[in-house]
Amino acid sequence: PGPPSLLTASLIPGYFLEDFVDMLCNQKLHQSWELLFHHSVVIVCFGIAVLLQQYVGFALVALLVEINSIFLHLRQILLMANLVHTTCYRLNSIVNLGTYVVFRIATLAWMTHWLFLNRENVPPATYAVGTVGMAIMTPMNIILFYRLLRSDFFK
Known InterPro entries for this protein (predicted)? Predict the structure, then answer.
């Protein structure tokens, strides 16, 4: 991998580690356990890619998921500001759902597909970590998608 890719991938475990520690210190475990689990998977997967300097591009594709995080976080801010019944919230809900499908579900589907197609070329330990990571992230994201649909569209 080139230096910019490796540098970018190197920053991710640190960011998620900092957020992990912040959640441990400032949130109740029953409120944050899913995100703590998510962050653990990201830290391990990106950490392996950086340490081995392999599959960095694959790891960086996972960052496409974070495009949707902009709208998930804006949703939380609008909820905290009690702006649920506004045009802004409604518009964000639609964009959030669209970016969720494109940048979360489609990205995870592509990554799972790539991993499956390249299983012969990926070392067994790396393949196992990738497969477990996808097996954790995909259901978590499907459940969150269902919760968003239920909350914002099927009240």
Answer: TLC-dom, TLCD
